[in-house]
Design a protein that fits this description.
By secondary structure, this protein is an all-alpha fold. It has one domain. The longest helix has 14 residues.
Length: 35
């Protein structure tokens, strides 16, 4: 759903922001962005 709603570019931007803010992936791991 999220990919269809926001688009691939937005998903990639969200992943980049998540990685910058949570580099150890301890906040909700795997809930929205699978590795």
């Amino acid at each position: 759903f999220l990919r269809r709603e926001a688009g691939d570019g937005a998903i990639e931007m969200m992943r980049t922001i998540k990685q910058a803010l949570d580099p150890d992936n301890i906040l909700n791991p795997g809930k929205i962005f699978a590795r």
